[in-house]
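Lecture 7 notes: from sequence to structure.
We start with the chain below.
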Amino acid sequence: MKTTTQETFVADSRMARRSFLKYAGAGAVAAGVLATAASCQKHGGVVSDPQVIDLGTGDIAVLNYAYALEQLEAAFYKRVIDSKYSGMNADETALLTDIRDHEVIHAAFFKAALGGNAIPDLTANFATINFNDRTAVLTAAKTFEDLGVAAYNGAGALIQTTEYLVLAGKIVSVEARHAALIRNLLNQNLADESILDLSTGLEKHKAPSQVLPIANSFITGKPLSAPALGA
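Predicted structure tokens for the same chain:
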């Protein structure tokens, strides 16, 4: 029987998920290296406003910033798979499960790297998302993925440690693949002017001051604050 392109893609993605999880231990080793470097820095600790979650200073702030976004994405995709939208087929289930697994690993990676400098586990608030509706779920997924890519791109210039910048570059490339996949499921342009500067062909970026208000809208409890990052 002839295998279609989509069937091949899904089969490959399932294999990719198994390989990704199998070799996740390598990420844990890298996280250990980061944790050693991070231990030389201090988290911001208690700030003047006790009603916020302080991300800290320096590279710690950037890592906590990324960790917060990965926590939200992991929580979102866990919810998507735990309460599948009406009509979710086997192909979509496999692909969205892949993304969930990646985001869970990303979040665990940052938590291990940060060690005692990590912000607390966040409580997500997805009350505005109708998880039973395909379009609503995929539109929300596009928001998270596009925001994540723009956030990583915007934070790159703030990273001081070379090792962190290299790993951030590897993670943002995965997030960009997720964004393209979600846009494909929505039958939308994979590279339009909402995410690209068409005059340069470069991906747009967002500063923490632009990203955190959006992220905070999906968090219950104390909002995230990053004075050291200008947000």
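Points to note: The two ends are 56 Å apart (CA to CA). Residues 5-229 form a domain with the Ferritin fold (CATH 1.20.1260.10).
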